[in-house]
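Much of our argument rests on the idea that a fold can be written as discrete symbols. In the encoding step, the backbone of a single protein was reduced to a row of integers, each denoting a local shape. This step matters because it turns folding into a mapping between discrete strings. For completeness, the protein is quoted in full, as a sequence line and a line of structure tokens:
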Amino acid sequence: MTSVFVFAVAGNVSAETLESALAKSYGNNPNLNAQRASVRATDENVAQAKSGYRPSITGTADIARSYSKYDSRTPPTIFGGGEQTTILTPRGFGLEINQTVFDGFRTDNSVRRAESGVLAAREDLTTTEQSTLVNAATAYMDVLRDTAILDLQRNNVEVIDEQLRQTRDRFNVGEVTRTDVAQAESRLAAARSQEAQAEANLRASIARYRQFVGVEPRQLAPGRPLDKLTPSSLDRALKIAFGEHPAIKAAQHQVDAAELQVKIAQGALAPQLGVTASVSQRYDTRIGNDEALIASAGARLTVPIYEGGQAYSATRQAKEQAGQAQLQADWVRDQIRAAVVSNWGALEAARAQIQAAQAQIDAAETALSGVREEARVGQRTTLDVLNAQQELLTARVNLIQAQRDRVVASYQLVSAMGRLNSRALGLAVNHYSPKIHYDQVKDLWIGTTTPDGR
């Protein structure tokens, strides 16, 4: 049976809905937008890794001033000799190109590792999106709950205040004792205290709503659980979670990246082959006003023999980190399983609590009506009436809490399964696609401007 919040504002076509609040959170939440920026930054790792495939080109220019004095210790003649002075301005410019041909597959593995990092970052973004939507839904339902509870507490104060007035009137005519008046006064003070606490709780919930949704709550419409996304059994929920949860996928991508890091470290032990070419124009190199054009090309093979053990240590370290990543992935899987089981139990408990609270309200209303009638004929005391009123208030609060818990538990369960996202919820938003930015930057050779113009 679908449960609707009876304490929500009804009949207001301009009321904020849970879906519209989630849409605002999806588009405006700073934490979620920061995670999107982090994914865009991670995309650049692929472009940086691919730079290993490309040549590096360096331009140079230099200028100097030289002075030399030569004394041959012989008298000067028309053929030379004596003291000679030479002043030159050696200068020139050139271009050098270096291209790696083979680096032990380090560039290949670096690109693949960067791609795995991008995929992991995307899954982390999905996890953050889920967390943001759960927090927004929880804040929405908390405001509804606390608003309804505050209304109940205010009504309770009015009821007890009227009860106190009637008790004082009966005391004045001798029907009850001073004790009855004191009991009513005590309950009124307690009711006012509960009203003040309810107001404080509502203010805190409004602050959290503003934090996660981005605006102040206004006229919230009823909230409904995600029955359409909830599977029929716990086993089905676990199967979905193990296959789709972004945290599990992210952890597996991290395992892939760690294993590729092992290959990158091992690549440092392989031979390195590269080619280089350069051309330069020189002036005043030996005598005044001379010129020289110098060009060269060649290949260089470097074979590492021993570099102090650094590469061997880095390889062993990478292997340990790969093992750590695999253990972490197993831990994440266990965490997801625990979250699904816990939230499944919470959802089932909330459903049962709603039914129990509704039955409790019916019984408490009947009991209160009977106690009031019996008190009028002297068969019940003022304390009995106050107790019956408190039981009815407690039952109504319990129903409100259970209804809130059912909605929140359904969102938490769908999140634990990995299916809480803007598309599954049908939110009216521009769905963010991290692939767009990735395609824009992964093969860029030059340029410092980001795709959005910064």
